[in-house]
Amino acid sequence: MEGNEELRETLVGMRQELDSLRTEAAHATLLLQALDTLLVVKENDDPFTGVFGALLPVFEASHAIVLVQAEEGSDELECTASSHPALLSLRCKADALLTKVLGGRIVTTLTDSALPDWLLDTSDDLSKSQPALYLPLGVRDRRGMLVLLRRPDQDGFDRAHVALARKFSLLASHAMAASRAHQTEAESHRLKHLTDQLTQSQSALAHRVNHDQLTGLANRAYVQELVDKRLSTKKDGERLALAFIDLDDFKRVNDFYGHAVGDALLCGVAERIQSQLRMTDILGRISGDEFVLVLDPFVERREISVLVNRVRDLLKKPFAIEGLSVKCSGSVGVAIFPTHGRDYETLRRNADAAMYSTKSTAKGNVTYFSKAMGQQMDERMSLEERLRNGFAERQFRCVLQAKVDMGTRRVVGFETLARWVDSEGVVHPPATFLQPAGELGLLDGITGMLLDELIQKLPTLNKTFGRDMRYSVNVSAAQASRPGFMRSIVRQVQSSGSAGNFMLELTEESLITASVFQTQTLPMMREAGVGISIDDFGTGYSSLSTLADITADELKIDRSFISSIHLRPRSQSILRAIESLGAALGIYLVAEGVETEEELHFLQDNTAITLGQGYLFHRPEFIDDLVANSGLGVHAA
Amino acid sequence: MLCVFYDSDHHDAPITDFLAERFPGVPVLGGTSCDGGMNQLGLGGRGSIALLAITDPEGDYGTASVLLDGDAATCAEKALHAALDNAGCPGELPELIWIYQAPGHEEEVIAGLRRVVGDRCPIIGGSSADNDVSGKWRQLGSDGVMTDGLVVGVFLSSGGVGFAFQGGYEPAGASGVVTKVAYATNGATGVVTQARGRRIITIDHKPAAEVYNRWTDGLVSGKLSTGGNILAETSMHPLGIDAGKIEDVTHYLVVHPDQVLEGGVLSTFAEVEEGTRLFSMRGDKARLVERAGKVTAAAVANIPGGAANVAGALIVYCAGCKMAVGEQMEGVADAVTKSLRGAPFVGCFTFGEQGVVLNKNAHGNLMISAVAFGR
């Protein structure tokens, strides 16, 4: 998919298709009921009693009236059936509107001038503002119509009702003709064929409406419908378990192997889970890589864990797709009725929260919902709300941490870090808000806010620390993979007039999308004079060839290697390897997270790394504080 | 029914005389369109006149014109009833309402029409345009030409209609909340009737034009101190309003900034409400070209019988998008023609577009609107 525009278009298309299928399925059901009623009535019975019963709820109408030509070809109409007794005696002349309906037009009215006087005159409890829908109807050899009325406080009939009316009008006229006029064998056969077709079409439509087209599993709406039905019949002591299964890193499968393999994997997953189900269990695919498994009934919790664990283990076995061996796993969260919720939505939400907990702790495992998790979820929702408000109020501020020459302690640059200063003045570190902000889609805006502040205060910083200082700004992997966003960042930096003073810090993960980065983003950054730093190096997946191609200016060795380096021979070996790599590629190395004198001494005594960053040298400060305190320690030489 | 669009440099009389002589008694709907119109033969270009005739003996069609003086909503309501009377369908809900009007009162016009039909019936159309935003736009109805009017057309076709309304822009990242607009007032008393309008004073409590300029990397820097028309510059960088979500994916209604006014006020071609979050949007030439074809295809897909049954179409393409697309505009006409499989159509270039967004009738800018007619 090229972008969100295509995604939006696809969603609108899907929504329209689903709405239309649902409408058609509902229409087919209604038509069958109404036709059935017409076909089974005896010669002298009123055929409309049953028809009204079927039509009124679907059209949300309060009254129905059948008007038929008093004589064949006559312009006088008489009411032959009505759900409103007072109208049964009605006779009227066909006016312009009724003539159109007799001619075959479906007419619905504006609500402010709906009912004609000839109808109003017949009963005191009819009002002019009642919306009306007129359907042409052939009754034996005479023309007629069905008039449906809504209450004055209801909305008028819309296009969907007109479409339904068109279908009903046609079929009902056939049915009336056949059932009331001693149908011939051929007519009877034709009608039966029509009804059979409708039944088949209804069943096909119902399946399409309720099932996912790819896997054939129940879709989101149908799973909810099935579960709600089950829950409504549960007696005291009866339980049900809802497992939420989310495939781990499914996006990568799509990215690496393409959508065809991704789709085949989803089908394979569906088959494997299905192979474990009992007759009474329910399995549905509720969105891209999310499945809901409902285990019903169960007595002991052990029954659930045996089945869910089996599903979990099965998903971990490689899938053979198009000659490839595709590895996969699913994170599972389980919620139990009635302990963790009494309705589908609560159970699904809680199972989702449990799954989320699995994802963040140990992917590919199973977690059961708990009260503590519920509390965490509430806290998370509250955090999201506060974050949204904080974003709207531009509460995200920029702090700077110095990068120094470890030998001289001279400041050579600063890393820009985010802080959220909430409305009560509490300062929150990035660990508490960056991930949720990313999930809420606020990260781009926050990066923009930090850059705004930095650019605005750049003249003051230049005055204090000199014009040669470089300021690094962190960019997430997701952001780096979007050339549009990177273009806007580079433009923002260029607007300062000092693009050469800026450096963007990218994680190794960003380099996975190296081709986009190299062809689109890198030339733009180079042209603008913006530097490139690889952050948290050593923890990701970047290949040597990619690193060589990217030609970064700086490699920041992840704090996990620096922490207690003097005590960890394994980290020391890795550090030596990174040092050789830096030297071979001609990239400056920066040791991140230097916090103790021991770490510093080790680096100085055993490596050629000269630049460092960490609490030992400087704790991040708001720019105003940094400038005010510049005489106290952190300053350029 | 006749749909007629023409370059604003034309004199009106020869056109109205021709229509009266060749099509006596036929309802007319249309007006001026920026730099002429387009049809299945391509882009007409400067000086062109585009005309589409709809023949449908079993359908009913009618138009009515009204001057937009006083309460535009009431004027629109009256015109709709008059159009229905003229179509011979008083009191009936039309299948489609098509409007063409002078720019400036679109939201009120839609509000007036919605008072009668709600969202039960699509309201589609455009705001008449001239070639240089100098106010030479006109609206053409069965009664003649107006400069500050509204023409309402009602369609009750026998072959069915399909419609679609979309923009071709994506959020660029930045966003902010409208904190002050120049209020609309109620008559001479100056009572504030609603916190919405077309002049955005502040976004996030800062002068709106400055915020917009920052979002767009200095796109209108040159006009911040002097003020002035920014229609052309902003065509690729409009603003967006959240129009609703499907499956958590936001859909946007696009708003086109047209002028920087004194005090950093940003004037737009559509109303914005205080408290609304505005999103910085960005466009792409190629997509604006393709989009016209896609919108048309979506409209065609909605007619009974789909593409095999299309008789013709009425396309509204924003004049701002036209400016942005420039020399590639022939591609727009080609894309529409392809989606219609060669069926006739007429297209106009407008200063505002009306259509249905997520089942609601709305006014937007830089949008593309298509109505396809079934046989």
Strand count, sense and barrel status of the largest sheet of chain A are: 8 strands, mixed, barrel
Globally, the shape of chain B reads globular
In CATH terms, the superfamily of the largest domain in chain A is: EAL domain
Tally of individual helices of chain B: 9
Biggest sheet architecture of chain B: 9 strands, antiparallel
Rg from alpha-carbon coordinates of chain B? 20 Å
Most residues in contact, chain pair and counts? A-B, 39 and 35 residues
CATH top level assignment of the largest domain in chain A: Alpha Beta
Kindly state the mean pLDDT of chain A as a whole number? 84
- Count of the separate structural domains of chain B: 2
The coarse overall form of chain A would be elongated
Q: At CATH's second level, what is the architecture of the largest domain in chain A?
A: Alpha-Beta Barrel
Using DSSP, what is the number of strands of chain B? 28
Q: In short, what is this structure?
A:
Chain A: Residues 238-371 form the GGDEF domain. The complex is a heterodimer of chains A (637) and B (375). By secondary structure, chain A is of the alpha/beta class.
Write the layout of secondary structure elements.
The complex is a heterodimer of chains A (637) and B (375).
Chain A lengths: L3 H37 L7 H12 L3 E7 L6 E7 L8 E3 L2 H7 L4 E2 L8 H4 L11 E8 L2 E8 L9 H22 L4 H26 L9 H13 L6 E9 L2 H8 L1 H16 L7 E6 L2 E9 L2 H16 L2 E3 L2 E3 L3 E8 L6 H18 L4 E3 L2 H22 L3 E10 L5 E11 L5 E2 L5 H6 L3 H23 L4 E6 L1 H4 L2 H12 L7 E6 L6 H15 L2 E7 L6 H7 L3 E4 L1 H4 L6 H17 L2 E4 L5 H10 L4 E3 L7 E2 H6 L9
Parallel strand pairs in A: 12-13, 15-17, 17-18, 18-19, 19-20, 20-21, 21-22
Antiparallel strand pairs in A: 1-2, 1-6, 2-3, 4-5, 5-6, 7-9, 7-12, 8-9, 10-11, 14-15, 14-22, 14-23, 15-16
Helix pairs in contact in A: 1-2, 1-5, 1-6, 8-9, 14-16, 16-17
Chain B lengths: L1 E5 L5 H11 L5 E5 L5 E2 L2 E2 L5 E5 L6 E8 L4 H15 L9 E6 L4 H12 L5 E5 L11 E3 L2 E3 L2 E8 L4 E7 L2 E12 L2 E3 L4 E4 L1 E8 L2 E2 H8 L5 H4 L3 E2 L1 H4 L4 E8 L2 E7 L1 E5 L3 E9 L3 E6 L2 H17 L8 E9 H7 L3 H11 L5 E6 L2 E5 L2 E5 L2 E8 L1
Parallel strand pairs in B: 1-2, 7-8, 24-25
Antiparallel strand pairs in B: 1-5, 2-9, 3-4, 3-25, 6-11, 7-11, 8-26, 9-10, 12-28, 13-16, 13-23, 14-15, 16-17, 16-22, 18-21, 19-20, 19-23, 21-22, 24-28, 26-27
Helix pairs in contact in B: 2-3, 7-9
